Amino acid sequence: MTRYSKQTRILVAVDCIIFGFDGQEMNLLLIKRGLEPEKGNWSLMGGFVQPGESFENGAARVLKKLTGLGDVYMEQLFAFGDPQRDPMERTVSIAYFSLIDIHQYEKQISHDYHAEWFPIKKIPALVFDHLAMIELAKEKLRYKAALHPILFELLPEKFTLPQLQSLYEGIYDAEMDKRNFSRKVLSTGLLIKQKDKEKESSKRGAFYYKLDKRKYLTKFNAFLNFIPNPHNLK
Amino acid sequence: MTRYSKQTRILVAVDCIIFGFDGQEMNLLLIKRGLEPEKGNWSLMGGFVQPGESFENGAARVLKKLTGLGDVYMEQLFAFGDPQRDPMERTVSIAYFSLIDIHQYEKQISHDYHAEWFPIKKIPALVFDHLAMIELAKEKLRYKAALHPILFELLPEKFTLPQLQSLYEGIYDAEMDKRNFSRKVLSTGLLIKQKDKEKESSKRGAFYYKLDKRKYLTKFNAFLNFIPNPHNLK
DNA sequence: TCAAAAGTGTTGTCCTTACACCCATGT
DNA sequence: ACATGGGTGTAAGGACAACACTTTTGA
Hints:
The structure is a homodimer.
Chain A: E1 9-21, E2 26-32, E3 42-43, E4 45-48, H1 55-67, E5 73-80, E6 91-100, H2 102-107, E7 116-119, H3 130-145, E8 158-160, H4 161-172, H5 178-187, E9 191-198, E10 206-211, H6 213-219
Parallel strand pairs in A: 1-6
Antiparallel strand pairs in A: 1-2, 1-4, 2-3, 2-7, 5-6, 8-10, 9-10
Chain A binds a DNA duplex through residues 160-162, 177-180, 182-184, 197, 199, 201-207, 225, 228-229, 231.
């Protein structure tokens, strides 16, 4: 076979927006860019798509290189193609966002890239259009989490209802009624109450829950209405 | 400035999934592919992204070339990047879907590409991964139309409630109660009743409505719950 | 014993659903 | 006059929001 002669070929990269929840607030994992231009400035982790490599594989490779994690939630966010987005040479970027359990990460942190977690309310200046990528990712996460049980991807295997609630409250910048909140999340049938309690953050202790993974998979695409109190949204 | 040497550059294309509603059912506009491989087979309209051209501009250019229409609803669907998706040479495709008023189109149809409308239930064999693109577009349309008043983009300026209802019924393959349906869509405040009636499709005639464009824009991103009767979904 | 967070139930309101009849008109 | 599709109201049930007190236990 011949090729499509006369057409211009373009560099294709993937960039990863990596969310992690530390129990208090949502964070993003950023690195110091390792090559010119803008070498040393804060950046999303990314890499060029290799010959024979799909976008998904490229994004997973990049994520694994930085976090050591495989098998995490990852979703294509958007393809950014502005001709001027990289001043060195036109590069299109397929942005992916992933949700990881920040505690899993800590065990395997890679210092090679000078990676750091930044609270999403305090993101530093970033290279190219990476801030726009992050804004879009935040928006999509809010959108999706309102309808699907996606935020469980950010939590460890065992978590408490107050932890879950503070995660939702952080994402929607809202205060929610804990009675209504627990009734609603429990009514989904997705949670399995454990016998033990988390005793660090309160004297009485809060019961742990685990996600029912089978129900999670089957119900994921149902619209579940996960925002208990939209009137409190700021 | 230098370039990123040593990295592989890839062909980048846009493909357009063009939806049109003819009053009866949803259709897609397909063309006969004009170049090898698979020349002459049914295909989505597409084209290579040109130097200096953004994805949005590329998709709009392709859409305009085929339909003569500019200023129509268009949204990035997904970036398809499987290394094998085009057997001739690796080509990534940024797929866009658009919703057009099929009547606007008819006035300006271009025969150059042997374009034809196909009911979405009777899509022929297509080149490459174009069927997968269409399936994803249908899914996204159903998803989005449940929450946002997006389907108005498919209708002419003046339309009737029965027309609107049959559009929703077609998309969701469901039967809806016309009393509940009209109450719900009218309660959004998005529709302005006209004084004249559409008399073609019934003896009594049905009142025309127009979209309140200002409210449409302001309410577009609110979750409006546009599926009146989810229990009837098949 | 006190402070701090966890846990739990009830009521009113609103939204959603189910459902049936009359109207206008062309043939 | 009748057949066809357009248009409307009501009642019952379910979901959601508002709201306050008791429990546990570490300090």
